[in-house]
Write a structure and sequence with these properties.
mainly beta, 1 helix
């Protein structure tokens, strides 16, 4: 069995919530390479496919059309973390909570076991 690619900090990946398995799916080059209950990324860009968002609104059902891309980080993030979230029915972007201020990138993002996403 090949070694887990997530053993290399700095690896550029995409992360999204796998609603079926209740974990975070980690994708590299369009292929899921791992599932993790918790993961940390640095130098993040937040992506939302508008066509996927419109499909979710039209069908009234969630689908994978958002992800956060960044570099895998093996260390924990210290300090206070602010929740961010996404709801396709309320805004076309991820937003910072409270206040619902749009967020497009972050120095770091923590994908927690409870399904929440937080940034410093």
């Amino acid at each position: 069995m090949p070694p887990c690619p997530l053993r290399r900090p700095g690896l550029k990946v995409h992360v999204y919530r796998n609603l079926t398995k209740g974990v975070w799916s980690v994708r590299k080059s369009g292929r899921v390479i791992a599932h993790r209950p918790l993961i940390v990324l640095r130098d993040c860009k937040i992506r939302v496919s508008e066509s996927g968002r419109q499909r979710a609104i039209r069908e009234g059902q969630r689908n994978v059309h958002t992800w956060i891309e960044g570099r895998y980080c093996a260390e924990a993030i210290a300090g206070e973390l602010t929740p961010i979230g996404y709801n396709p029915f309320h805004a076309p972007t991820f937003t910072r909570r409270p206040g619902f201020i749009p967020v497009f990138e972050a120095l770091a993002v923590v994908f927690a076991e409870d399904g929440s996403i937080r940034r410093p």
